[in-house]
Amino acid sequence: MALLAPWQSPAPVPDASPAPPPPTLREPGTPPAPPGLPPAGTVREDEAPDWWPFASEFPHWHVWRGVAGLLYARRPRSSPPKVARAKDVTTLRERIISAEVAR
After folding, report:
1. Where are the domains of the chain?
2. Euclidean distance between the first and final Cα of the chain, in Å?
3. Of 34, 55, 66, 84, which alpha carbon lies 20 to 30 A from 100's?
4. pLDDT tens string for the chain (103 positions)?
5. What is the DSSP string of the chain?
6. CB atoms within 10 A of CB 45
7. The overall pTM is greater than 0.85
8. CA-CA distance, 25 to 61, in Å (whole number)?
């Protein structure tokens, strides 16, 4: 083996151990899913939100249900801000359409 100067470091030795598995993505602070259950954030088809049939019609809108059950929608990065709210999905759809046309 050759002598190395203080500023030189030896070449890295390849590690023969297998690479660790990639990390699973989940929200910080949420525990991993128990064995046999799907990971957090996945939705079964029968549990799909009411809004999903209209989601492809308005891809740039973010829709969520509030604490009291009211539906809210907003279009990120719009100026002025575009926001709509309604008690059901059909009314929300109509209000999104009017918000798109009005501004």
Report:
1. 49-102
2. 74
3. 66
4. 566 666 666 666 666 667 666 655 566 666 666 666 666 555 555 555 677 777 888 888 888 888 888 889 999 988 888 999 999 889 999 999 999 886 5
5. -----TT--PPPPPP-SPPPPPPPP--TTPPPPPTTSPPTT---GGG--TTHHHHTT-TT-EEEE-TTS-EEEEETT-SS-EEEEESSHHHHHHHHHHHHHH-
6. 6
7. no
8. 24
